[in-house]
Amino acid sequence: MTQRIAVLGATGSIGDSTLSILADHPKQYQVYALSGHGRLDKLFELCQQFKPSRVAVPEDKVDEFAARLQQANLTCDVVGGQAGLDDIAADTEVDTVVAAIVGAAGLASTLTAAKAGKRILLANKEALVMAGSLMMKAVKDNGATLLPLDSEHNAIFQCLPPEVQQHNTQIHDASYGINKLWLTASGGPFLYKSLQQMQTASVSEAVKHPNWSMGQKISVDSATMMNKGLELIEACHLFDLAESQINVVIHPQSIVHSMVEYCDGSFLAQMGSPDMRTPIAHALAYPKRITAGVKSLDLYQLSALEFIKPDLEKFACLKLAREAMQSGQEATIALNAANEVAVEAFIKEQVSLTDIALINGRVLDTMHQRSSANQSVDRDFRGSIRTLDDIVIIDKLARIQAQKEVAQCLS
Fold first, then answer.
1. Comparing 61-75, 97-111, 162-176, 250-264, which segment has the lowest mean pLDDT?
2. What confidence score (pLDDT) does residue 212 get?
3. What's the chain's average pLDDT?
4. Do residues 259 and 268 make contact, with C-beta atoms less than 8 angstroms apart?
5. Where are the beta strands (DSSP E) in 69-165?
6. What DSSP line would sit under 261-277, residue for residue?
7. pLDDT at position 376, please?
8. For 257-266, what is the mean pLDDT?
9. 3 pairs with which residues across the strands?
10. Do residues 134 and 111 make contact, with C-beta atoms less than 8 angstroms apart?
11. pLDDT at 171
């Protein structure tokens, strides 16, 4: 039976990898819907190649894009903005939603897909960083399936017992003997550089990842190890564990993608070439396997594999992520929002790479003080986050504060 796929965020790196696999397996998968935001020329080319039934673009580009498709004799329903993304995510014709929109912008459509009971292939870590409790509840209440695409979370998933894969709340059952999860990190381009060298790093240096081909934002997050901090928060929600049960270890070769430690001393690890097509292919076909077009590891050619403890002074963003997870969801929402603003400012060369951690920390401190004094504008968010509106308010407040911190760095 052909599986109908909606790729939200089709023009990014995850979209590229996903669509290359779908193109190799046309009898098993049909590209039903695509979305794009800034790279509409590329989205148009994808529409020509895959001929989706539906496509989502920014609200003000709907008419222009629809006319362009019509001129190319392509029949496609063009929808716009957040409403269009949500409509595709809940479309009854869609079997699987690939949630690959970068940042907070991908949250609402991913939550909509969960509420619609879809099979979700999650690459948008912000969906769990910002709305972990809401997202996991929606998945459970509506019979949705959530499969991680991040190479680390997918690796952990593959190393868990089948019963735990299917019912992640059972991860606490003593009969499974799971002790800890280990997230591996490459260490990024500054692993062997000093904190002083990071302070003067250029944008081109920061986005030059040694192992992975990724977009600018996630590459900068890798350089500061905020990416690993966000993945830690994501793992807490995805696998229903406290942050103290999740360790981070730097593994520069990016061959071991993550590990599960069991109480008998066993470590189960998933290994493979650093290629996102492997976790994507796994999630697309789960519980079966399909070819991904990935070069096989040559074990005979592998050099020694290194495992290094992270330097939390140099990679302060990782420490901030642990502290935010300990503080609660308001803090993780604020951290994600502040980081998006700070990274954008760095890419625009307004702040330094090490300013990102300073801005993030100051925003967390300010939001904590605001929450203690005002209960976050007369609303108590220190308990559970109940609605998407709650998240949006906290996110907005944190972004405003982050912009103030950026301005202070510029002054």
1. 162-176
2. 60
3. 92
4. yes
5. 77-80, 96-99, 119-122, 145-148
6. EETTS-EEEEE--S-TH
7. 45
8. 96
9. 29
10. yes
11. 82
More confident residue, 377 or 148: 148
pTM recorded for the entire structure: 0.91
| Cα atoms in the 13 Å half-sphere on the side-chain side of 336 | 33
Structure tokens at 358: 């300073």
Please classify residue 268 by burial: count the beta carbons closer than 10 Å to its beta carbon, then call 0-12 exposed, 13-18 middle and 19+ buried. middle
Round to whole Å and give the CA distance between 143 and 167.
11
Give dist(CA 234, CA 331) in Å, integer. Answer: 14
Alpha helices in 201-260 (DSSP H): 203-206, 216-224, 226-238
Give the CA dihedral 12, 14, 20, 23, nearest 10 degrees: -90
Positive/negative CA dihedral, 231, 363, 411, 348:
positive
Give the residue-averaged pLDDT of 172-192: 91
Residue 85 and residue 107: Cα distance in Å, rounded?
11
Tokens linked to 341: 């603003």
Length of the chain: 411
Task: Name 178's Cβ contacts closer than 8 Å, sequence gap at least 6.
Answer: 160, 164, 171, 260, 261, 262, 263
Residue-wise pLDDT tens digits, 119-132: 999 998 888 999 99
The single-letter code of the amino acid at 272 is G
How does strand 256-262 pair with strand 178-185?
antiparallel
Report the run of H or E that residue 83 belongs to, with start and end: helix 81-89
Residue 377 clears pLDDT 70, i.e. is over it: no
What the block records as the tokens of 110 is 């991913």
Q: What are phi and psi of 236, to 5 degrees?
A: -60, -45
Using DSSP's 3-state secondary structure scheme, residue 187 falls into coil
Q: Which residue pairs, CB below 8 angstroms and at least 24 apart, start in 103-106?
A: 103/217, 103/340, 104/130, 104/336, 104/337, 104/340, 104/395, 105/37, 106/8, 106/9
CA Rg, the chain, in Å?
Answer: 21
* Structural tokens at position 178: 């799971």
What's the pLDDT tens digit per position in 306-365?
999 999 999 999 999 999 999 999 999 999 999 999 999 999 999 999 999 999 999 999
To 5 degrees, how large is the angle CA 82–CA 87–CA 88?
100
Query: What DSSP state is assigned to residue 170?
Result: G
